[in-house]
TrEMBL record:
Similarity section: Belongs to the UTP25 family.
Location(s) in or outside the cell: Nucleus, Nucleolus
Compositionally biased spans, kind Acidic residues: 37-57, 67-90
GO biological process: maturation of SSU-rRNA from tricistronic rRNA transcript (SSU-rRNA, 5.8S rRNA, LSU-rRNA)
Gene Ontology molecular function terms on file: rRNA binding; U3 snoRNA binding
Record region (Disordered): 1-111, 286-306
Gene Ontology cellular-component annotations: small-subunit processome
Organism per entry: Helopsaltes ochotensis (Middendorff's grasshopper-warbler)
The protein's name: U3 small nucleolar RNA-associated protein 25 homolog
Biased composition regions of type Polar residues, renumbered to the chain: 91-104
The keyword Nucleus is assigned to this record: yes
Subunit structure: Interacts with CAPN3; the interaction is required for CAPN3 translocation to the nucleolus.
Length: 714
């Protein structure tokens, strides 16, 4: 399948390196537990190896015996990091098949096929149900100032659409107490400036029943942790985020932290998404009743209240554990009190497939707190599930075309969308998405960013089939193919990255405008380096972003590597963020017959142990080491004396983590430690995250190499 694969026969570990399945799947398989643990010989590595050997991560069924995937040819710089999973067997479209079959897990693929819940179809049908009296009067949603009605009922004109398609956005800045610096941008005439509410009365937010009463109860866990007690039902962060969300502007928040504010943010966007769905459905049910009660022969065009397909909210999250937490929040928000439990269809099956067994986790693992927070629970990355909500009931595993909310991973949604020319593919259900939530976007950089781009290319397109829609009820904005101009996109990430910025800037067209949080790091992660180490930042010149990849390689080969070829510069670790840069360097090292070993995200356990042992003992002078391996494993590499960052890390805290590995080997040779970092003017964001904004400004103005010395007391 990997036609671009480099078939180099010079592989020292005799690994064929043909990538048969998604490389990320192979990697994920090693994170899962099995009853066995390997007993590789690891001399002098008692501390870290004890932990790693007990991680029964190693022999999962998903792990391929092909070793590393040898990525594309040397000059292919922009190819996605793994082969995309396009096997037609994995195009699981059973959501759309109304056969009600409950298919079991296929052990060969390790993927559970979705089943279609037919039993509850009529019960959750929007077309055949009506508004219940106690569910709240939909006319309340017609009050002036209601954000949902204001956003969805605005009728754009052709000239405004043309303006948004052709003219650049105008932007303005604002400083908010908690979010910091915000950049507001819009193509249409300047909207009134959005100000941060100091206090929020829940009743003024136009929340749908029962959310007014349930939100404060569900959110209580975060309020009790605040330093200053508050009467508000929002934390300061939630209040400002929800203020933007409720204005229906697009939002990019790049300071999500799994350890600190991740759950706060999840609760806030779940409230917004559920509020949107309840209001939209209440409007449809109310209009159903009006149409039922109208006099025969009267025809009205007043009840255009739907999209071309039913799904309104799409939530993209990286792991099943995230989907589990979202569904639990949605259920909690719908339950007014302990006596009024809502009916949740297929709840038991959902818990079985999305939950995890706490006893499965291997003991004695020593990993950073942020690692534990990100990889908590069920970390399978191939899933999708439809959720239908109607008044006091929720239906899990609803067919997509009967769902209000779809929760999926990038890979899960990618295998449904399929690729050009495939027989089994479907993306009509994405045609009328009104809110797109992409949470933990930074993790997709470590998975396969192509899946995210593929989704953005297929969202809000006109459907190829009518899917039984009543066109007299479809909004004109959908019939005009203007859905993308009404879609709100909420993007949450742990970092700023050009690829994430590109999605927000190039694939978000909301007429209401965009809000991006743009705070600059003042100190940088270099302040967390705990060892005395000279840092040399070497600037390379490149004419464009496209040419920087080749320029970096040439600079490394011509200027940096010759200084490290001498045997005295042994124990040199080369940290490489891009897998394809890693392949290029590895092939060059082989060609030059350098004494090196290498570890990447596809390397088998035995080969990893062997490489670490060779490097520690000095039998191999160089160790090529990929960022994604570090992201998924967080092993401590012992024996480092010289560090080369081929490129600045994606996650800034990885810089200090890797530097602090030097103290893992107490050999009394501190004075000989070195750290060299390659950077260009296009690395401004990453550089600022490592050294701080002030140093970055100086370094980008000067074309000289910069020498910094960290004392370990910073």
């Amino acid at each position: 399948q990997s036609e671009d694969s480099d078939k180099s026969s010079a592989e020292s570990d005799s690994e064929t390196e043909v990538e048969q399945v998604s490389g990320y799947h192979k990697l994920l398989a090693t994170l899962k537990t099995s009853p066995e643990s390997e007993s590789e010989e690891e001399e002098d590595e008692s501390e870290s190896e004890e932990a790693e050997e007990s991680e029964a991560e190693m022999d999962s069924k998903g792990t391929q015996e092909t070793g590393e995937g040898e990525g594309g040819e040397e000059d292919k710089n922009d190819v996605p990091e793994e082969e995309e999973a396009t096997d037609t067997e994995e195009q699981m479209l059973s959501q759309e098949q109304a056969d009600g079959t409950d298919t079991s897990c296929d052990p060969r693929r390790g993927v559970i096929e979705e089943f279609t819940d037919v039993k509850h179809e009529s019960e959750f049908s929007l077309e055949t149900n009506f508004m219940e009296e106690e569910s709240g009067d939909c006319n309340a949603d017609r009050k002036d100032g209601n954000p949902f009605k204001q956003h969805m009922d605005k009728e754009l004109e052709e000239k405004e659409i043309k303006k948004m398609s052709t003219l650049p956005k105008t932007s303005s800045q604002s400083q908010w107490p908690r979010l910091g610096q915000l950049i507001f941008s819009s193509t249409l005439e300047k909207h009134k400036t959005l100000k941060a509410d100091k206090e929020v009365d829940v009743k003024q937010l136009h929340l749908h029943k029962p959310l007014e009463s349930t939100w404060s109860k569900v959110n209580k866990q975060f309020l009790s942790a605040l330093d200053k007690p508050t009467d508000s039902s929002f934390t300061p962060l939630q209040r400002e985020l929800f203020c933007v969300m409720n204005s229906y502007r697009d939002l990019f928040y790049p300071e999500r932290n799994a350890l600190t504010n991740g759950e706060e943010i999840r609760h806030a966007y779940c409230l917004h998404a559920l509020n949107h769905v309840l209001k939209a459905n209440a409007q449809v049910l109310s209009n159903n009743a009006k149409r039922r009660d109208r006099k025969p022969g009267t025809d009205s065009d007043d009840h255009r209240d739907q999209g071309l397909t039913r799904p309104k909210v799409l939530m993209i999250v990286p792991f099943r554990e995230c989907a589990l937490r979202i569904v639990h929040i949605l259920i909690s928000l719908l339950e007014v009190n302990d006596k009024k439990k809502i009916d949740v269809s297929n709840k038991k099956r959902f818990k079985g497939e999305f939950g995890s067994d706490p006893e499965e986790k291997p003991p004695n693992l020593k990993r950073p707190e942020d690692y534990e927070a990100v990889f908590a629970g069920n970390i399978d990355d191939h899933f999708r599930i439809g959720v239908a909500i109607l008044q006091k009931s929720m239906r899990l595993y609803a067919p997509f075309y009967s769902s209000d909310i779809i929760i999926a991973s990038p890979l899960g949604i990618r295998t449904v969308i399929g690729a050009e020319g495939e027989k089994k593919r479907d993306f009509d259900f994405l045609s009328s998405i009104e809110i797109l939530i992409i949470d933990q976007a930074d993790i997709y950089l470590m998975q396969n960013w192509e899946h995210v781009l593929h989704l953005m290319k297929h969202i809000n397109l006109l459907p190829l089939d009518s899917h039984g829609v009543d066109f007299s009820r479809v909004r004109m904005l959908n019939l005009n193919n203007w859905s993308k101009y009404y879609r709100q996109t909420l993007l949450f990430s742990a970092l700023q990255d050009p690829q994430i910025n590109s999605v927000f800037n190039k694939h978000c067209f909301n007429y209401a405008g965009q809000v991006a949080v743009r705070n600059v790091p003042l100190t940088g992660s270099i302040s967390h380096v705990a060892v005395q180490l000279p840092h040399v930042f070497r600037r390379l010149e490149a004419d464009s972003v496209a040419s920087v990849i080749d320029a970096r390689f040439q600079f490394f080969v011509d200027k940096v590597l010759p200084e490290y070829r001498d045997a005295i510069m042994s124990h040199t670790l080369v940290y490489v963020p891009s897998y394809f840069d890693y392949v290029r360097l590895r092939n060059y090292f082989k060609k030059e017959d350098l004494n090196f070993t290498h570890i990447c995200e596809y390397t088998k356990k035995a080969a990893v142990c062997r490489a670490r042992r060779f490097f520690l003992k000095g039998e191999k002078q160089f160790l090529l080491f990929t960022e994604r391996f570090h992201f998924y494993k967080r092993y401590t590499i012992k024996g480092i004396r010289n560090l080369i960052f081929y490129e600045l890390p994606t996650y800034s805290h990885f810089y200090s983590e890797i530097c602090n590995m030097l103290k893992a080997t107490d050999s009394g040779v501190d004075a000989t430690w070195t750290c060299t970092v390659l950077y260009s003017k296009y690395d401004a964001q990453k550089l600022a995250a490592v050294v701080g904004i002030d140093r970055t400004a100086q370094m980008l103005q000067s074309k000289k190499n910069v020498h910094l010395f960290v004392t370990g007391e910073n």
